[in-house]
Specification:
With 315 residues, the protein is mainly alpha-helical. The protein is built from 13 helices and no strands. The chain has helices at 2-31, 44-53, 60-72, 88-94, 97-125, 130-144, 147-161, 176-205, 208-215, 220-249, 252-257, 263-272, 276-304.
């Protein structure tokens, strides 16, 4: 019951958050001087006609209210410039831009979890030994290296010199095309998850219930991977919420380097072209993803540790 009440509260908060994000984005976007229809050859009369056609001649408050009304009916507007008069929803979903970013993001996330958690457990199990030292060095280097450096090194080494993987992944029609982009996007989160898991497991090992398990004669592996690991996953779950959104929204560099026509690169192009509906649609879509993932993470807390009270006073 407390999970249902908490979920309803968070859904209400999510709606207000998205409304606030939409308002901030809309008014800041329109605060920049100029017009999306302004070119070297455009005349003031042509700009005025274009503004009237798309309702940009109305007061900003009226424009925002109209946009929210249309959005509630599933209408995200139409492109003003990049693909003029094409529905934003069709651009983001129908042309596969969002799905490409989602595919890469999900694969990178799963890779980070599958690699990071076992490495963290392994490092904690062999604490102070050479395996632990090597893993700590690797994870530190992985966290310190910027994404564009990793992408460039992989592209130059495995794409240009060794010719193992395709240099451009614009179609993503073969499994091998995903390898370099996914490794590039998952390296940092894998190393971060490994560090979180190691630190959390070492902290769990010092708890009373672990001492009790040792006193009962349980083997070290059983204690670590059955008892300590479950509580150690809470910091990792906390990180997975913003990580999921950041992997998808932060894939701009990877998409640019590997020539992937995803939502990240298209979002930047829409900003440069002042295509307001695409900017709004992309921002709201990504904000909704972040809010949703944070809700999933909070609910996952309760599943991992039933002792957590989601509806405590003051929440």
């Amino acid at each position: 019951m407390d999970l249902l009440i908490y979920s309803l509260k968070r859904i209400g908060t999510a709606i207000l958050t998205l409304l606030l994000v939409a308002a901030i984005t809309f008014f800041l976007m329109n605060a920049i001087p100029g017009s999306p229809f302004m070119t070297d050859k455009s005349t003031p009369e042509q700009i005025a006609l274009a503004n009237a056609k798309y309702g940009l001649d109305k007061p900003l408050v009226v424009q925002f209210v109209n946009y929210i009304k249309n959005l509630l009916h599933g209408d995200m507007g139409t492109s003003l410039k990049m693909q003029q008069d094409t529905a934003v929803a069709k651009i983001l979903f129908g042309q596969g831009k969002f799905s490409r970013s989602i595919q890469l993001g999900v694969m990178a996330l799963l890779t980070a979890i599958i690699v990071g958690i076992p490495l963290g457990c392994l490092s904690a199990y062999y604490r102070g030994k050479w395996i632990d030292n090597v893993l700590r060095v690797i994870t530190t280097v992985g966290i310190a290296m910027p994404t564009f450096v990793i992408a460039t090194l992989m592209l130059f080494t495995f794409g240009v010199n060794l010719k193992i993987f395709p240099v451009q992944s614009d179609t993503l029609d073969t499994p091998i095309a995903y390898v370099m982009p996914v490794i590039t996007m998952s390296l940092y989160p894998s190393c971060h998850i490994a560090k979180l898991t190691r630190t959390s497991m070492l902290d769990s090992i010092s708890q009373d219930y672990i001492r009790t398990a040792r006193a009962k004669g349980l083997k070290t592996k059983m204690i670590l991977f059955k008892h300590a690991l479950r509580n150690s996953l809470i910091p990792v779950i906390t990180y997975l919420g913003p990580l999921t959104a950041s992997i998808i929204t932060g894939s701009l560099v990877v998409e640019q380097i590997y020539s992937i026509p995803g939502i990240g690169s298209y979002f930047v192009s829409s900003i440069l072209n002042r295509d307001y509906p695409i900017i709004m649609g992309t921002t709201i879509l990504l904000a909704a993803l972040i809010v949703f993932m944070n809700l999933v993470v909070d609910i996952a807390y309760k599943i991992v540790d039933p002792r957590i009270n989601l509806t405590k006073k003051g929440d």
